[in-house]
User: What shape does this take?
Amino acid sequence: MKRFWIIGAIVLSIFVSRKALAQSAGAALSGNVTAAAPTLQSSGVNTGDTTWMLVSTALVMLMTPGLALFYGGMVRRKNVLGTIMQSFIALGVVTLQWVLFGYSLAFGPDIGHVIGSLKWIGLNGVGMLPNPDYSPTIPHEAFMMFQMMFAIITPALITGAFAERFKFKSYIVFIILWSTLVYDPLAHWVWGVGGWMRNLGAIDFAGGLVVHVSSGVSALVAALVIGRRRGYGQEPMPPHNLTMTLIGAALLWFGWFGFNAGSALASGALATSAFLATQIAAAAAALSWTMAEWYTRGKPTVLGAASGAVAGLVAITPASGFVGPMAALLIGLIGGIVCFVGIRIKEKFHYDDSLDTVGVHGLGGAWGAIATGLFASVAINPAGSNGLFHGNIVLLGAQLLALAVVVLYAFGMSWAILKLLDKTFGLRVSPEDEMDGLDLAEHGESGYVFEEL
Assistant: This one.
């Protein structure tokens, strides 16, 4: 195992060194920064759009630490650091994967409508000038960084299904394989120029299919393959810190404005419309979930309100740049109910989706993709299509087909990856380590140290 990591580090170092030397040589040939500045200013880069995209990128980056707190508060005290670490480490692992080859696979020049070529490997050809296909008014590097943050948070979402029992070393390998074999192809199919779903006419403004459905389905597979936590259904496993969870939900809500409104890729009317739709849907779902819980369980809970807000954010994501305020309100209201019912499904089928990734992200993303086919309007975004309620049934058909394919592909590929890892590294910690908690067993730390005075 140690030899594997050492060899990998050596290969990575050699590759990065060669790319750095090549880029340095290119910079020397092209002259100094001062000489290059007029070229950039005359290239079509819009400073307002670029500023908005850099801010949106930072907002989406903050969502992953927000997710760490959201998930971390819902587990037992002995697993808080292990859960937080699974989200936080994705910032490092997926960043390198994306820079080295992930971005090229997802958005590089199309090969057969299914994957991008490796022409942009190591960000070769991805520079400060705009790319007319993806970023006509912002530097190509800005678009790449924005999309990187989506790639980072998506595998982190899956961790909610196997919280408190997954080996850390296996998780590192999992997110590399999953990002490469699941996320990157799906991103190309839906968003990449030449991608077959994009050519089909399916639309996904900010990741309902690519991010939420893929992670939700993969979370279901993980829960089934790994199995339930020790004592699940026999002993109480309440969240240990709902204050932390609520802070995480607030950070997710805050960052989601960059997630959705930033997907307009410009500072203007479309970003404003997506921003408003995001707020309305989150608020509506927080209320509908709370009311449903109050009615069925007798009390409205903080966890329910926080989960409802996230459900609304998930549901509006694919539609946020294609619908108006009232459609966003309906999508949020229905989304809150759909996801509330969704988390109760596991109680009937007895699978252990620890932190409700399947119910919130899987079902919420699916509803959002379908709702896009119902409510989308070219009056909001001329680059989109009218949905069923605006006289066009074709879009709904395209959305349903895309949804079915994403579900099947994510399910099958995730199953294969997890089975492979189970045969090689093993997926689950030992019963003794699970009893002790991941904080001590996997990281040698404790999230809380109480000293006697």
